[in-house]
Amino acid sequence: MEAWDIIVIGDGPAALRAAASGAKAGATTLMMSADSLGSGSLSALDGIAAPLKESTTKSHRDDTIRAGAFLCDQDIVSKRISQATRQVDLLERWGVIFRRDPDGIPLVRRAAGHSLPRLAGAGDSMARETQQVLEEQCMKHGVSRRGDQLPLHLVHTDEEVHGLIALDMTTGSLNALQAKSIIIADGGYEGVWNGSAIGLGVDLAMRTGLAIRDLEFVSWTPLAIDGTNVVLPIGMLADGATLHHANGEPLDVDDFADAATIANAMGNESIVLDARNMGTSSVWWAQTAELLSTRLGINMSKQTIPVTAQVSTTLGGITTDEHGRAISGKWSRWFTGLYAAGEAASSGVHGAGMVAGNRLLDALAGGAAAGEHAAKHASDASYTGRSKLETFLGVAEADLDFEMAGAEEGPVQRSGALFAKLSEIMNSKSGTSRDESGLSQAMQELEGLSIDAEKLHLDDSSRLFNTNLLDSLRLKAGVRLAKATIQSAISRTESRGTHQRSDFEESDSEQIHHTLVDIDGNTSTLAIRKGSGRSWILSPGA
Fold it and tell me: How far is the C-alpha of 456 from the C-alpha of 18, rounded, in Å?
């Protein structure tokens, strides 16, 4: 049986940063991804937000809290934003080529949700360069990376981590992996709305009985191209691209409104992006121009681009503190050895809405915090639960055989059709606006979809590189997370941030708390974290 100090699930910026930080601190670290290595980079990355030209962090902090509709854990916001300049400096030292201003420092622009210029980036190469330099850091510090590894069970006793059971699709073997710390950083589950990939980590945690936080909140992008998987970086708006109605009238929204406000203003109308007047900035979006030309036949410098609002990432997830530790039920309880970072975590930074650039900031700072603390925990902890891991290995073997049985029995359900049905339910009933009737109907439809998912037909009965099996597991995880999302949305009887209820149009000051939901649909609340003995840094109406 393999034994590791830290196992990191995921392969995007948060996972890479966590793994490198843990290994640098001396922990033996394994990174594992359900996909091929290198496919975990963030698409349409906005850049990173940092107050590089401000004397204090106050304005950045206040913008973050307002966009989060006062559901941010404000001491954690302060801590993350205090680290923003350092994260930009590290990325630059490691090799990211930022755009620069006449003073020679990274250029910052005002972007969605910000009151001052603070979005730094490298145009449409930001995602690729960030992924590349973080992979290099993992190699430098000796992180072992494995792709095509399916995590099936997180094994624990009384909320103390022992390790996990995973299927190695490169060999077809089912393995028990002992670990002192596990960091879940494989992304959110926005795929239940937009058809993209669904991270398995949040569902893995929820299946242990851990209650998940604030699933009713999602982040929207106004720059998705309908009918495709192409999403344009919102940073283009900071460089002069503008949104218009089909008749040419500008979209009636503040130029620097947050993405959710822009998405709400777009509604169901036909909206186009005009990127023809970006001037010299357009050179930083050359790859986007080439993508539009080759995929869709659109010349960005001469034609407008039809766009629509789409869920870009989820904001809810595994509740974490400033160290990335998974919190169980209340702030004083830690699911010992379990951590989360990036979109898999509900870190307290985003609250009920997100400003541009804070996504990458939270992934980097949160990943670093989780990796460092996990290494410290591993240095003091012992390996536990070997017999329980062996027991669960047998359970996982039986579960996998049952899952594969569909390949021989030949049920009629196919993953593509069920994914499409899942997206239709979530977009129509849990989109930019919801009400109790629609949410209740969505729950009924999801119950039926859950039954259909159990009858899913697998064309491939092999354990080697079985993408059919991966789709099946992601579909079932997506349905469970969608049901939990609907339950959270039903329980929040107010409109706040990206959660807009047409039957409860006003915000309720009595509901400034986090929503918790478990796998059985039971909901509870968790208090906003203000810090020891401190009052609000920023209060509603301020």
Answer: 35
Task: Report the residue count for the chain.
Answer: 542
pLDDT above 90: percentage of residues in the chain: 76
Report H helices in 321-458.
358-380, 386-404, 406-409, 415-429, 436-454
Contact 304, 244 (CB under 8 A): yes
The Cα–Cα gap between 281 and 302 comes to: 15
Could you tell me if 298 and 401 lie in one domain?
no
Q: How far, in Å, CA of 34 to CA of 199, rounded?
A: 9
- Condensed to tens digits (0 to 9), the pLDDT of residues 149-177 reads 999 999 999 999 999 999 999 999 999 99
Buried b (16+ CB within 10 A) or exposed e, 363-402: bbbbbbbbbbbbbbbbeebebbbeeebeebbeebeeebee
Shared domain check, 394 and 305:
no
Amino acid symbol at 32: M
Both tokens of 293, joined, read 């030309």
Which neighbouring-strand residues pair with 339? 183, 325
Give the containing element (helix H, strand E) for 22.
helix 13-24
Higher pLDDT, 91 or 279: 91
Domain that holds residue 445: 388-526
Q: Which of 279, 295, 312 is the last residue of a domain?
A: 312
| 518 domain-assigned | yes
Residues 398, 491, single domain; the answer is yes
If you ran DSSP here, which 8-state letter would residue 84 be given?
Answer: H
- What does the pLDDT read at residue 407? 45
Contact 300, 291 (CB under 8 A): no
Same domain flag for 393 and 521: yes
Q: Total domain count for the chain? A: 2
Least confident of 277-281, 337-341, 444-448: 277-281
Does the pLDDT value for residue 324 go beyond 90? yes
Write the CATH number for 294. 3.90.700.10
Question: Considering the domain boundaries, does residue 477 fall inside one?
Answer: yes
- Return d(Cα 102, Cα 75) in angstroms, integer: 34
